[in-house]
Amino acid sequence: MRVLVTGGAGYIGTHTAVSLISAGHEVEIADNLVNGKAEAVRRVEEITDTSIPLHVVELTDQEATDDLVAQGSYDGVVHFAGLKAVGESWREPLAYYENNIGCTTSLLGALARHDVKMFVFSSSATVYGANAPVPYQEDYEPLEAASPYGQTKVMIERILRDVAQADPTWRIALLRYFNPVGAHPSGRIGEDPKGIPNNLLPFIAQVAVGRREKLSIFGGDYPTADGTCERDYLHVDDLAEGHVAALDAIARRDPGVGAWNLGGGRGTSVLQMLRAFERAAGRELPHEIVERRPGDLPAFWADTTRATEQLGWTAKRTIDDTCRDTWAWQSQNPQGYPEE
Ligand code: UD1
Fold first, then answer.
1. Residues in the ligand 1 pocket, defined by CB under 6 Å
2. Does the residue 75 lie in any domain?
3. Residue 67 forms part of a structural domain
4. Closest Cα to atom 18, ligand 1: which residue?
5. Domain count of the chain?
6. Is 102 domain-assigned?
7. Which entry of 81, 83, 148, 223 is 20 to 30 Å from 13 by CA?
8. How far apart are CA 299 and CA 93, in angstroms?
9. Index of the ligand 1 atom closest to the CA of residue 125
10. Where are the alpha helices (DSSP H) in 101-147?
11. In the annotation, is 149 catalytic?
12. Burial 125-142 (b: 16+ CB within 10 A, else e)
């Protein structure tokens, strides 16, 4: 298939581009380069030994998006483009609603006009909110994310269901990611957060490489085995392969919308992650237990039955694989991608 990957210069987008190309698909990337990097796309070209057109475009610009889709002869789209920082979304909610929803509706309009009706959407486990029973199952309702970032995911899922209801020829996958971590084993591409990382693994990796003094563990008194929060971490290459499986599945299934959890199906605590990273980096890492972070849930993970049965996909890589690959990326690129 000819696949347009929006947000394809970002963390999950680059890894998914590699998996799509490895599976025999042809990939083009659209990105506004606000978070993504052109250098990351060059490295995907290097890893896959292919040439990948990079369209630098604001998808909120309907004319530019229409031109992009008109020239592409795409069979399908994997849509990652969007803002993704939870904390920032509380401070700048309008930017999140305008950008994430605006670029999706603009893109969907262009795709409908040019009859490209295969669409994979980058959703999040955050749509399950604070009350869903663990493990999270796809049929749970009502979806209700706490943050404006999470609300954009809930709303876009709703928009996609409405679009498919109005035109039943659409084939749409809503992929609810748990906690994506890790990097391509080459260490050439990986997660390159702006400023101080909010997420656990990038923070630990920056402690290990000497960019941060120590890890603050947010809360040691949760009702979990070791008192720290548990999350369902999955290797970004497993996640990337989940997109390839989802694209294949929606192409062969009846048209319509499906939601699938992409997770490893088990919880790992903050302390377990830290210990695994220490094994990968070969030394102990300074850390201290501090206050809980407001809004954190004690523990959640995915029920992955549906993805296994319907997509034929399961996460294969271990936490140790993940930490080894994150360390390969971070130690080879201590400051992330070079400034452009
Ligand atoms: C967060 C977002 C979620 C988003 C996901 C992307 C919140 C509330 N949720 O999930 O919407 O989809 O990132 O990956 O922000 N931790 C520390 N010290 C740190 C950083 C994190 O102890 O410096 C702990 C947290 O308390 C948490 C765990 O590590 O228990 C994972 O945190 P994080 O990587 O931020 O992911 P989530 O909060 O699960």
1. 86, 124, 126, 150, 179, 198-200, 203, 215-218, 229, 231, 270, 293, 295-296
2. yes
3. yes
4. 217
5. 1
6. yes
7. 148
8. 26
9. 12
10. 102-113
11. yes
12. bbbbbeebebbbbbeeee
User: What is the Cα Rg of the chain in Å?
Assistant: 19
For residue 67, the CA-to-ligand 1 centroid distance in Å is 38
- Per-residue pLDDT of the chain in tens (340 residues, 90 and over written 9): 999 999 999 999 999 999 999 999 999 999 999 999 999 999 999 999 999 999 999 999 999 999 999 999 999 999 999 999 999 999 999 999 999 999 999 999 999 999 999 999 999 999 999 999 999 999 999 999 999 999 999 999 999 999 999 999 999 999 999 999 999 999 999 999 989 999 999 999 999 999 999 999 999 999 999 999 999 999 999 999 999 999 999 999 999 999 999 999 999 999 999 999 999 999 999 999 999 999 899 999 999 999 999 999 999 999 999 999 999 999 999 999 998 7
How big is the chain, counted in residues? Answer: 340
Buried b (16+ CB within 10 A) or exposed e, 227-251: bbbbbbbbbbbbbbbbbbbbbbbbe
The domain spanning residue 170 has which CATH number? 3.40.50.720
Beta strands in 248-332 (DSSP E): 256-262, 268-269, 287-290
Best residue among 100, 123, 199 to mutate for probing ligand 1, ranked by most atoms within 8 Å of CB: 199
Distance CA 136, CA 242 (A): 18
- Could you tell me if residue 171 is inside a domain? yes
Quote the domain boundaries for residue 47: 2-182+233-265
Q: CB neighbours (10 Å) of residue 259? A: 21
